[in-house]
Structure formats: C-alpha cells, structure tokens
Amino acid sequence: MTSGRRSPRADTLDLAAVRQARQRGLSARLTLVGSFVLVLFLLGLWLRPWLETAVGQDEGPGPGPGESVQPGMRWIPAGEFTMGTDDNRSLPNERPAHRVRVNAFWIDEHLVTNAEFAVFAETTGYATTAERAPVWEEIQKQLPPGTPKPPDEFLVPGSLVFTPPPGPVPLDDLSAWWRWQPGANWRHPEGPASSIEGREAHPVVQVSWHDAAAYAEWIGKRLPTEAEWEYAARGGLDQQRYPWGSEAHPRGRHLANTFQGHFPDHQTAEDGFAGTSPVHAFPPNGYALYDMAGNVWQWTGDFYSATEFAARASQGLCDNPTGPTKTYEPTDPYAVQRVIKGGSFLCHPAYCESYRPSARRGTAPDTSSSHVGFRLALGPR
Ligand SMILES: [Ca+2]
Fold it and tell me: 182 with 154: CB under 8 angstroms?
C-alpha cells in the first residue's frame, strides 16, 4: 500500500535544484540557508497536528464554517451540538438525543468519486474486498459457532446488488431486494455486464470499510468519526430532521437523492435518479457539503453499538467521541460492524428514511454493496 502513496508536500521541495546548485559550486552559505528552510519545513510538518488542535480549540482566526483550505475539503469549526434525536419517528438506535462536542476538522465536500478511486487503484494496484475471493475462516469469526461452510461456488469474488422484486414484499427480509452477484465490484457495480463509464463523477460504491481505510491511508486522510459526520451533516442547524431543515420537500423540491414510489418494487425516480447521482447534483448543506443525505451511505471510522447513544446520555457532555471499542448489536452477538451514515438512493419514508442526520446503521467492515461509499476527514481525532 505504501509503495504508491503520494507525498504532495515533498513534491514542492525542489531538492533536485538544490543539488544542482551545489554542483555548480554556489557558496556554502546558500546550502546553509537551504538547510535552514528544510528544517523549518520539517518542523512545520511535525507541529502541524498540534497546530490544528490548537486552532480547533479556540476556533481562532481560521477559516469560517464551510470555507475551503484543503482543496476539495471544507473546514468545520469546533463546537457543541445535539447528536441523535428524541423524535419518536426515528429508530431506537438514534435515541436519545445527547450533547456532544467535536474538535475542528476538515471534511471532503463530496463523496469520493469513481474517477478519484480509479487513480488510487491504478497507482497502487489495490484490489478491493469485492475483487478478492472471500476467506471462509474470516467470515466464520462473525458467525455463531458451528455455522456450516457454504458451497465453494459462493466463495467467489462478488458483492451485494440491489435488485427490485417484481411486486410488493414484506419489509423485514432484506434478501427480497438484495442479491449476491459474482463479479460485482466498484468497476462493475451491478455485475460483470455493468460499468462505471459515464459515472466518473458518481460516488464509488462496492467498497468495504477496509477499502475506504486503505484509500484514506494512501491519500493521507482518515475516515470521519460518527460524531464528526453527524455534526457536519447538520450544517450548523440544531436538532432538525433533515440537513436542510424540518420539511422533507420544502416548496416541493427534492434536496437529496432518495427513493420515490413504492419501496422496493416500484421506483418512480421523481428526483431524477433511480441509482447513484453525480456528487454535485443536489444542493449542498450549510457547511457547503454535498450528499450529506441520500445518494449513498458513508462509512465512518467508529465501531457500531446499538446502545451507544443511551450510554452517552448519562455521561453529560461527550467530548469528541470516537465510538465504542467494539461492536454491540444484541441481535447479532458475533457481529463486527462499523457505523454507516447518510442513507442512500434506496431510502424511503416507508422503510427507514435514513437520510436524516441522526440515522445510523452497523455494517460489517468486509461488506460492500451498490449503495455504500465514503468521504474522508483530516485533522486529529
Ligand atoms: Ca432517487
């Protein structure tokens, strides 16, 4: 992974020019000045995490909310907010509302796109989870003891693909609209016959948490915490049901790529998209961030616990939480899961309406599907 990692700041040091100057016999003083500049540069890199923390703590003269310093990223100032919700139109894992403080950080203004992920894959030769054959011994760790090994024909590279059923189905059985598709991966999101041609500006999908973490390591960023993600998604609004306010469709407008029609069998795509959409297709939120609702779910760095918010509510103000140390999902005691946020083009009010900022779901880190992607953050956790 490290062989192809970029070092953009090192590129700005014209070390070759310095060497040539030496060879031309310029004075030792010039070399001394150059060394001093290099030392200052390296000192700046070393101090940067501390400086970022310091700026975040006093919110000092840094960028304003949503302003850009890092290319393609937005500055989110430190602050307190109400995380989760007490609204009874929510799922139990979103409750109760509780107070959280987050440090300042940068976050990508849009989801990582197919074009961006292609640069990573081509530079490093990285093969995503879906492009590798599943390892039964790894899957087995997340299943109850004694679970029989599936037939070998199922242990082939592939991923989960949304497939609408021919008619209405009970909404308590995900297998009615998800299928395991051999050959599905980020290059072929719906299977071998599909491609991302024409979808370069759409979010990359069919990426596992491990894939997102590998991309983050390569580019020198990290996944946001769940608290950072929700704080950013709210865009400066307090306790609103949606990133843009309290109404689902103000003045009749669709402000996110979600599911219209009868879920999951009949989609009308009144918002213009039956699947993913380009990352700038819908208006940004108050922090100038796109797709903080709908389009695709987004990986965060936190482990998932169904009772995390209940545990926090008794702790008073939670200071920059980074999630529990392990997964807790009472319905699946062997699960290892990370939090995903934001909902997707498949979210519908009749099912989960998970494009609300408080909505959250646990997903196995080695799972990928056609409606989960990611964006990244920068700054100390
Ligand atoms: Ca849609």
Answer: no
Please name each of the domains of the chain with its CATH number: 73-378 (3.90.1580.10)
- Alpha carbons 24 and 8: distance in angstroms, whole number: 28
What gap in Å lies between CA 315 and CA 20, rounded to an integer?
61
Place of tokens 């599905």: 184
358 and 94 in contact (C-beta within 8 Å)? yes
From the CA of 88, how far away is ligand 1's center (Å)? 25
Task: State pLDDT tens for residues 281-335.
Answer: 999 999 999 999 999 999 999 999 999 999 998 889 999 999 999 999 999 989 9
Distance in Å, CA 267 to ligand 1 centroid = 8
- Cα 75 to ligand 1 centre (Å): 28
DSSP state of 188: B
Measured in Å, residue 269 CA sits from the centre of ligand 1 at 5
Angstrom distance (rounded) from CA 330 to CA 101: 28
> Bridge partners of 160?
180, 369
> Which residue reads 């009010």 in tokens?
349
Rounded to two decimals, what is the model's pTM? 0.82
Q: What's the gap in Å between 52 CA and the centre of ligand 1?
A: 38
**Rounded distance from Cα 257 to ligand 1 centre (Å):** 4
CA 253 to centroid of ligand 1, rounded, Å: 13
CA atoms 309, 311, 313, 316: torsion sign: negative
Instruction: Tell me how far apart the alpha carbons of residues 224 and 110 are, in angstroms, rounded to a whole number.
Output: 13
